[in-house]
Input
Amino acid sequence: MTRAQWMSKPATFSKLMVVGLLGALCLLLVEIRFEHREALAEAWQSWIPLFYCGGMLALGAAGLARWHRGGRQVLLVGFAAAFLIGLLGVWFHSEGHPLAGLFRVLAAWTLRPGDAGGIKIGIPPVMAPLAFVGLGSMGVLVSRPAGTGGAVPRLGAGKA
Output
């Protein structure tokens, strides 16, 4: 079987996408553990993304193993939960003021390089948790059941 034939199978391509997304969650787990190293002792909220990433890695392995027997639906729910994790992270990182935090981030574009603009160094990055929303979006798209438009188009489809 050639690479093009192998990749043209929607389920195979979707599974490869899920493996890639799980790899991204694994890297995110390592990075968040490093970035939250001090906060883990101070606030219970800093454990949320770590538990999600770890749980999603286990869920992902099980979902891939049982792809056609409910695993795809389980992955869909798991990836959809990433939206909640990301939005909660934005809420916690902005101390309950997500719009003010967003404007503070956008205001950085008006500063000269090297100017902190009165923003304290070491505060949590307000938009970083949105990485979960992005990964969750891609995961939901590739985990949707085939009958709902979730199938990935075949490579070379529509070519004469």
In short: The chain has one domain: 7-144.
